[in-house]
Amino acid sequence: MTAGLLLTAPQQATAGPPNLLSNPGFETAGAPGADMPSCWSTSGWGDNDFTFATVPDAHSGTKAMRVSLTRRVDGDRKALVTETTACAPTVAPGKQYDLSAWYKSTTPDVSVTVFRREAATGNWQYWTDLQNPPVSAGWARTEVRTPVVPPGTDKIAWGLSVYGVGTLTTDDYALEEVVAAPPQPTCSGTAQECAKGRWEVIPAKNPVRSMHAVVLRNGKVLLIAGSGNDIAQFDAGTFTSAVYDPANGSFRTIPTPVDMFCSGHVQLSDGRVLVMSGNKGYPSADGTIGYQGLKDSYTFDPATETYTKTNDMNGGHWYPSATILGNGDVISFGGLKEDSTGNVTAERFSAAQNKWLPVNEVNQTWSYWGLYPSMILMQDGRLFYSGSHTFGNGTPGTGASIYDYDANTITDVPGLRNKDQRDESASVLLPPAQDQRVLTIGGGNNETNPAANRITDIIDLKQPSPAYTAGPDIPLGLVDTGSGKRPQTGAEGKMYASAVLLPDGKVLETGGGLHDRADPVFEASFFDPATNTYQAGLATDPIPRTYHSASFLMPDGRVMSVGDNPGNGTYAHTVSIYTPPYLFKGPRPQITSVIDTQWVYGDTQRITVNRPVAKAELIRPAAVTHSSDPNQRFVDLPMTVDGNNIDLNVTSNPNLAPPGWYMLFAVDANGVPSIATWVHLGGPSALAATAQPPSAHEHTFANEPGTPKPNPAKRDSVPVAPAVAGCDRHYGTASVCVPTRFPAEVKETPKARCDWLAAHRYPQRMKVHGSDPLRLDQDRDGYTC
């Protein structure tokens, strides 16, 4: 249902008095000489022509505020509650507030914009946009509920922003505290489950050696293996995928046309999965040739469970990135070409043309981004390279940067610690996406093979010149270095960790290993973006989950974990399911109806719930591999509440929520989520088709990141060592990874190295190809140890 239908008639506020605003109707004039009424200020930014005026065309009383834009290139203008102690209302962390105003407008480009003050510093900052009220020729009332007030906030200010040419008149503002007390949680499991959650290993086994996991729009899971890092299957042309159906716990093997081992993948706006590149060839036995990337590209249709070929990419990209843009296009960087060199060509898949564009139609910086570079879409359409990648060192410079496709520039951002030990780290856009904060977790380096670190770094991309700052260390867990589990100590952390956005707004961090493809860490924790703290000591997955593992959110609010492919070449076919503590807090809320599952940007959509909820959000389904899912995001849906009927306000900005299918969750005040309902976000729903949707409301975040660095000259590729995967190819097969460099605690003697290999269950006698750089063939019989 559209906002116009919902809000043109007066509605009774669900929160009680008093109105916490001073001078809500502009009736009290400002101080002598002031050009605005008392407790109101002009605000805004950008290149535009505008006027502010107090006018007699009031909803009640004698005055109203009129803001007009007659020319706009960018930016917005708004009458804002004055950010002073006397005027800005005091709020309490953990509470929610209903904001309302009467308005008339000639443009849909209007947004309810809220700022908050940090109590400790007194500094004001943008908080969030809540709603896009529709065009209204007569007086209409807009009402929306804030998210829970973050810790450390003592005051808020707000107003209606105009960011399109037109006129907005407002009057009779109100801000009222939501006074309903949340129900007390009850524990429906054991005390341990209610505090730490529960893992269980399901009876069914994953039939394929999957490296890639995609949650499909029907709730099933696509698991892609290709050759499964098994050279025997590659030589036999045996390439596999499977679809898991959580409704009955079954797996179905899917014919797979090429070796999609270490491909890239992303969900397209129509729900198909775009799978790009993969493995053209394994490294040679003598180690002179490395992995080789495919040009091939396919889409997978969840309805038919079949692959369909697209046109080829412009080059091979073994380990490519894949990021969906706000218009539904996909952009991809990095990886290895057909000849094992590093690919410097940016690739763009056109959603409108359903094909990869020629090189000359794609902006090129000729930069090498490495393998699986984590490229996260920002709210203004630029890409943030978080510094997370797979294999080797990070990019030259600071290790993290902002890429502006339109300007074709790369600008480094500072602060990422140990940038060359972020191999197989995880990065996530923290909940909600509107906050534009990114967290990186752990990592190591497969070439030097130190113990993985505990480092987390956080960057706020709303800052004019954003920089990473130190986050809390990953909690310590138990590690098995080959002789049984022991407690981690000191700086020991993890690489290959999974980071999963949960519907209660926290991040589950689970799995990982202490060294490259070895030494699993049994630890799980929650990261809370509201407090920037970890909750340690959760239940842990009983199955090791290191290299080629994946964890991801299911529509029922649980987390599924698959895979583990250590250096000895084995693979874990067991599947684990984690039930978070929030599912042991009593009955979960239910979404009893959704009027329309086809959503449009800037729309208002009505749902009905069976009892009060505190928030609702869209979570983009997973498409994860190698700790990397740069498209994972949690988009807040501000609510207008009328009993059990809730109007959800959808962002007008497709860069915050790229088009596609999403899981819609409703969550109560105790963090208990509903089962998700699938909705499609994109172009206009049936009821919204007759109304002009608002434009994207973009902000001037990260507008002073520094000077872009020079782009390299046009080139075909960059050299990449065949040992980029961190494996010494003189031993065994390509499916077995004897480390080029053993962990530091292993003495550089044949016996110590052989003992390490035996403790980690490597084949007892591996063939030596050519020379013996690690001195593992002491009796010179052509086999190790």
UniProtKB/TrEMBL annotation:
<protein>
    <submittedName>
        <fullName>Galactose oxidase</fullName>
    </submittedName>
</protein>
<dbReference type="InterPro" id="IPR011043">
    <property type="entry name" value="Gal_Oxase/kelch_b-propeller"/>
</dbReference>
<dbReference type="Pfam" id="PF09118">
    <property type="entry name" value="GO-like_E_set"/>
</dbReference>
<dbReference type="InterPro" id="IPR009880">
    <property type="entry name" value="Glyoxal_oxidase_N"/>
</dbReference>
<dbReference type="InterPro" id="IPR037293">
    <property type="entry name" value="Gal_Oxidase_central_sf"/>
</dbReference>
<dbReference type="GO" id="GO:0005975">
    <property type="term" value="P:carbohydrate metabolic process"/>
</dbReference>
<dbReference type="InterPro" id="IPR015202">
    <property type="entry name" value="GO-like_E_set"/>
</dbReference>
<keyword id="KW-0732">Signal</keyword>
<dbReference type="Pfam" id="PF07250">
    <property type="entry name" value="Glyoxal_oxid_N"/>
</dbReference>
<feature type="region of interest" description="Disordered">
    <location>
        <begin position="1"/>
        <end position="34"/>
    </location>
</feature>
<dbReference type="InterPro" id="IPR014756">
    <property type="entry name" value="Ig_E-set"/>
</dbReference>
<dbReference type="InterPro" id="IPR013783">
    <property type="entry name" value="Ig-like_fold"/>
</dbReference>
<feature type="domain" description="Galactose oxidase-like Early set">
    <location>
        <begin position="588"/>
        <end position="680"/>
    </location>
</feature>
<feature type="region of interest" description="Disordered">
    <location>
        <begin position="688"/>
        <end position="717"/>
    </location>
</feature>
<feature type="domain" description="Glyoxal oxidase N-terminal">
    <location>
        <begin position="240"/>
        <end position="575"/>
    </location>
</feature>
